[in-house]
Hints:
Elements: H1 15-26, E1 38-43, E2 61-67, E3 70-77, E4 80-86, E5 90-96, H2 110-121, E6 131-134, H3 140-148
Antiparallel strand pairs: 1-2, 1-6, 2-3, 3-4, 4-5
Amino acid sequence: MLESIAGDGGTSGTTGSRAAHAWLVGRALIVPPHQRWHANITFAPDAQQPSADIDEATETRFRLDIYSEEWGFFFCHHGRASWIRITDVPFVHGRDDFQLLGATPALSYAGALVRWIEGQHSLHFDREHALVRTNVGSAEPAIRAWIEQF
């Protein structure tokens, strides 16, 4: 199992928003104050860019969602799914068929989570063809460089 998430001890915002802000700063990305922003990264186990729409009944996907106010991840495989969101604390959004709530790492360890899921399910998510969607201008190269570290 991965080490569980812990707060960073900051005094403003939630654990999720502080992690998202730290992620943004770590990529040297700039967003105007108080602007809501997002970055969504979707991985598939084949060498084709996945679509933004996921059929959790038939597809295998891992999606990482980072928003100005929270972050989370979604994993589906063989008709089962887990969706975890992190605001103040990690929580299940809908269902957690894979029992990933207890394996939720800090956002800075998202790559370790992806590798752990791959090992648990004998998968390999294609990093090169990951779908990156964001409203942060010119962010895709920095996000793709981060993905390469997974």
